């Protein structure tokens, strides 16, 4: 309709469309490219640059292998698998943030025609678990059952109904009679940490190992209605003080470090509770097939779903089959088992096929969220910009359950302190139970909150020292080979391991971004009401959990010469299946369309810890690489047998042949695999790969922002945002850039717009997309750039590192420092609003 459409036209067309995973920048590029193609038949628009010219498919922009099926509407999601006749499941939810159930009568609901079963705490297992999909034994307390007599948050489960239709479920819920004793809720860490504060959990505490000697005495004050809290191993929790977990550690002499400083900044930074808001709500479809419980899930952790559901149902794991369908966004929330537990148990008990899907309101009140945190940072520096000491005191709010209660706040310290060459660093952390809706995993996993606090503190330090912020960062940033002594005190419930920094593009990222945005040049607006400022935050993440995670894969050469990859990894829309396919194609010298991938199926595939902690490319990709390398070894041996030559003379060449370097004889993959599977062959050509490691391919980066602030109204405009990241070798650059744009935009949303709002009784007031503040295309910076810095890395497949999760870490610090540069005030809480700016400027 508009052949000469401009950026503003695209923005108008997409203004009502919510996109969470890829941002919007590539839509502009796509329109520009189409316009050029229409005009001249060719285009200069580059959606993503090539990397590693010597390789065939690695480092080259590639569409997702499942892209055609997705855009043509083929059945790929959980809801597409639901068969006619499936029963519905609905949950009755608590109207209180804290209450005991005194009486519950389900008689009328059970008598309603079409109702199959009503579940409550009275007829469900007394089995405690954590919803956190983490490696067992989990560093999270087992403090939750399917239903509990004590209700701990607004929207907590009171009862559930299985019925023939959604309408019957709702009618049955209205017939359930409940008598409650409401309790005073505790909603934030300041309240929860006070002596005599209401206790969120006051049940019996049990330890599987490492129980303290006074545990019997400790449990004398427990209330049976509160149930139980089980620790697999000590997490330094104290539920009588509302503490779910705690940790501390560091290096050096803090007192000495601060004495050496010429300037000390000591401030508190607070971040809000942020909802993941995937476009696809949590959904599950369960049924019985061949006397086995089958779960079709939208999950990041199919193997943890199997383990937890089998435990709740009292089934052996071989009686549970989990199929990860296409995931319509997870961002960490689908690392938690939030619907699969109840849906799976309901089918196990009733034998009925059941479909269970959260409403959008339930996504807000019963889904996992980003932990609110209160982070005190004390930092000292010398006149030359050298940082002498950093101290972090982290108070995290885990909400009503302790899933991820240690590991998320640990990341606030571990993913930030390890960027600095500072001799004196220490942290303390406590995570508190409260009666807000559940917290859990969210992209960035704690690191964004610590990054915000550290970036703002260093920004203020640089300002007081009269130094350029980029100069201070470069002076104190780690380099390749620097020994990270601080890691010894940063283990997650165990002693950490000191390792050197691997490949590191941190300083290069700072220099590149500073050049792009002309960082030290002061910009002046033509309108005197508007002040312009620039800010930067340096960031890092990890690539999986070395020493804890494991990934497995199988690669088969089929009898027609094509390849099938069986990956334990869980593609969340991130393109992980495409990553694995590209790795296999590169190794076998096959075209990408000759590779098919099956993933996340607990029957077909081998174990994978799951798609979290930025593990996909590094762990699942390396497993696919190892499997293919083992397959190649088998293929060369089989080729030597068939050609009656030596293995060392066999060579794989494109497009899919094995050639003897001695005789020149050759076998196509079709010939090789077909003969191998016949009566005179050695059998199917299969390679299996397992990837475990103590090393991590750590990505680094620097995010830059330029903002304009209206000194009369407090309005904030993000004019420029540049994300520069060390990505090793990006396996698929176009998808990598899309993920960076999406993660950055989510982080801009956290910084300026988003946050769950509660009243004093603990009710959520903005449990919908309209009122919540999720950013859309109108909130995107006009000048938005994502840049991948190629860095040679020894650990990732073909030198790849993780890419998307790190991109959530930088916006808050960069924008916060830019606002301070513009108007001279550091806003220390999320979201940064006009009102907060005007108040800090003493305009009211």
Task: Furnish the topology, listing elements before pairings.
Blueprint (H helix, E strand, L loop, with lengths): L6 H7 L11 H16 L26 H5 L6 H4 L5 E7 L5 E7 L1 H5 L3 E5 L30 E2 L5 E7 L2 H9 L2 E6 L6 H4 L11 E4 L7 H4 L9 E4 L11 E9 L2 H6 L3 E9 L2 E2 L7 E7 L2 E6 L4 H12 L6 E5 L15 H11 L3 E4 L2 H6 L3 E2 L2 E9 L5 E13 L7 H11 L7 E9 L13 H19 L3 H8 L29 H12 L12 E11 L10 E7 L5 E5 L8 H13 L6 E5 L16 H28 L6 E4 L3 E4 L5 E3 H8 L8 E7 L8 E11 L5 E13 L4 H20 L16 H4 L10 E8 L20 H13 L10 H7 L4
Parallel strand pairs: 1-15, 7-8, 13-14, 18-19, 22-23, 29-30
Antiparallel strand pairs: 1-5, 2-4, 2-6, 3-5, 9-19, 10-17, 11-16, 12-13, 12-15, 17-18, 20-28, 21-22, 21-27, 24-25, 25-26, 28-29
Helix pairs in contact: 10-11, 13-14, 14-22, 17-18, 18-19, 20-22
Structure in words:
The protein is 27% helix and 23% strand. The chain contains 23 helices and 30 strands. The strands form eight sheets. It has a seven-stranded mixed sheet with strand order 3-5-1-15-12-13-14. A five-stranded mixed sheet has the order 9-19-18-17-10. Strands 20-28-29-30 form a four-stranded mixed sheet, sandwiched between helices. The longest helix has 28 residues, at 616-643. The two termini are 48 Å apart.
């Amino acid at each position: 309709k508009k052949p000469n459409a401009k950026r503003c036209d695209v923005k108008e067309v997409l203004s009502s469309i919510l996109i969470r995973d890829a941002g919007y920048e590539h839509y502009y590029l796509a329109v520009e490219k189409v316009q050029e193609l229409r005009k001249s038949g060719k285009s200069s628009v580059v959606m993503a640059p090539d990397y590693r010219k010597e390789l065939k498919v690695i480092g080259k922009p590639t569409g997702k292998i499942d892209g055609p099926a997705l855009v043509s509407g083929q059945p790929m999601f959980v809801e597409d698998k639901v068969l006619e006749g499936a029963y519905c499941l609905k949950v009755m939810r608590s109207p209180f943030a804290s209450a005991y159930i005194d009486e519950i009568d389900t008689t009328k609901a059970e008598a309603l025609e079409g109702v199959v079963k009503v579940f409550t705490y009275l007829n469900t297992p007394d089995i405690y678990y954590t919803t956190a999909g983490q490696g067992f034994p989990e560093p999270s307390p087992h403090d939750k059952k399917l239903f509990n007599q004590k209700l701990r948050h607004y929207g907590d489960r009171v009862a559930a109904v299985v019925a023939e239709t959604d309408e019957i479920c709702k009618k049955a819920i209205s017939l359930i009679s409940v008598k409650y004793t409401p309790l005073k809720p505790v909603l934030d860490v300041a309240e929860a940490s006070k002596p005599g504060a209401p206790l969120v959990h006051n049940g019996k505490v049990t330890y599987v190992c490492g129980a303290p000697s006074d545990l019997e005495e400790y449990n004398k004050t427990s209330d049976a209605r509160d149930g139980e809290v089980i620790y697999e191993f000590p997490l330094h929790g104290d539920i009588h003080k509302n503490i779910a977990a705690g940790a501390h550690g560091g290096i050096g002499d803090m007192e000495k470090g601060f004495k050496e400083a010429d300037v000390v900044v000591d401030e508190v930074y607070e971040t809000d509770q942020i909802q993941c808001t995937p476009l696809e709500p949590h959904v599950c479809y369960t049924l019985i097939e061949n006397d086995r419980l089958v779960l079709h899930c939208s999950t990041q952790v199919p193997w943890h779903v199997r383990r937890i559901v089998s435990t709740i149902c009292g089934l052996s794991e071989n009686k549970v089959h989990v199929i990860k369908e296409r995931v319509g966004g997870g961002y960490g929330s689908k690392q938690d088992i939030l619907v699969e537990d109840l849906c799976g148990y309901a089918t196990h008990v009733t034998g009925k096929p059941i479909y269970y899907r959260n409403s959008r309101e339930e996504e807000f009140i019963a889904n996992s969220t980003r932990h609110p945190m209160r982070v005190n940072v004390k930092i000292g520096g010398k006149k030359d910009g050298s940082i002498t000491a950093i101290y972090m005191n982290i108070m995290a709010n885990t909400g009503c359950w302790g899933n991820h209660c240690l590991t998320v706040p640990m990341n606030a310290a571990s993913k930030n302190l390890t960027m600095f060459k500072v001799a004196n660093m220490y942290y303390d952390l406590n995570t508190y139970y409260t009666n807000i809706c559940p917290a859990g995993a969210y992209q960035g996993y704690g690191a964004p909150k610590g990054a915000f606090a550290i970036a703002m503190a260093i920004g203020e330090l640089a300002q007081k020292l009269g130094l350029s912020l980029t100069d201070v960062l470069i002076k104190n940033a780690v380099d390749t080979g620097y020994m990270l002594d601080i890691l010894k005190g940063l283990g997650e419930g165990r002693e950490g391991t000191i390792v050197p920094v691997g490949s590191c593009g941190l300083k290069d990222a700072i220099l590149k971004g500073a050049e792009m945005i002309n960082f030290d040049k002061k910009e002046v607006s033509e309108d005197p009401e508007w002040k312009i400022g620039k800010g930067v935050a340096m960031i890092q993440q990890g690539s999986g959990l070395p020493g804890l995670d494991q990934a497995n894969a199988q690669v088969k050469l089929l009898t027609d010469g094509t390849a099938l990859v069986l990956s334990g990894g869980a593609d969340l829309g991130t393109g992980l299946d495409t990553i694995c396919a590209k790795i296999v194609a590169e190794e076998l010298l096959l075209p990408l369309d000759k590779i098919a991938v099956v993933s996340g199926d607990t029957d077909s595939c081998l174990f994978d810890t799951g798609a979290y902690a930025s593990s996909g490319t590094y762990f699942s990709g390396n497993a696919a690489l190892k499997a293919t390398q083992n397959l190649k070894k088998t293929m060369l041996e089989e080729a030597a047998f068939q050609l009656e030559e030596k293995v060392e003379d066999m060579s794989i060449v494109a497009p899919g042949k094995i050639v003897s370097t001695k005789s020149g004889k050759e076998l196509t993959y079709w010939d090789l695999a077909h003969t191998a599977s016949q009566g005179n062959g050695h059998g199917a050509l299969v390679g299996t790969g397992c990837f475990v490691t103590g090393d991590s391919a750590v990505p680094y980066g620097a995010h830059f922002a330029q903002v304009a602030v209206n000194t009369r109204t407090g309005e904030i405009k993000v004019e420029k945002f540049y994300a520069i990241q060390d990505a090793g070798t990006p396996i698929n650059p176009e998808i990598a850039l899309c993920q960076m744009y999406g993660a950055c935009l989510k982080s801009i949303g956290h910084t300026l717009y988003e946050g769950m709002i509660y009243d004093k009784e603990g009710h959520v007031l903005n449990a919908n997309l309209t009122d919540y503040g999720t950013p859309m295309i109108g909130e995107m910076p006009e000048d938005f750039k994502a840049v991948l810095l190629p860095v040679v890395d020894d650990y990732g497949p073909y030198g790849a590192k993780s890419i998307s999760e790190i991109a959530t870490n930088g916006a808050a610090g960069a924008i916060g420092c830019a606002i301070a540069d513009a108007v001279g005030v550091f806003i220390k809480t999320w979201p940064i609003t006009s009102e907060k700016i005007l108040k800090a400027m003493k305009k009211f």
